[in-house]
Design goal:
Radius of gyration: 13 Å
Structural class: mainly alpha
Number of helices: 6
Low-confidence stretches: none
Number of strands: 0
Shape: globular
Helix content: 55-70%
Distance between the termini: 10 Å
Length: about 100
Amino acid sequence: MKNELPQDVARVIPRLVPSLHFLARRRMLLPALLLLFTHRPLAFVVGQGLWLCTPLEMLVPNAHVDAWATLLSHPHGGTILETLLAEVATNGSSIDESVS
């Protein structure tokens, strides 16, 4: 999957994998996918809003707000995130090897 990704997005995906695994452990993948499907047109706006929140990352250093902002600000970020969530749901931890 990494081959067809833009370079800036491909660089941040490994930083997002722990968050995706957190969603899987909490059994929140389906709600995350549903939220993504229903709010896909707003992904760019959310990504830009996250750029505004990056200074707050000092309070929660492992949130990787800038990585989420990069992914969601990309025109195909919603589709990429959808694919990543689906891979985590079906393959579990094997996503680590496919994106690194």
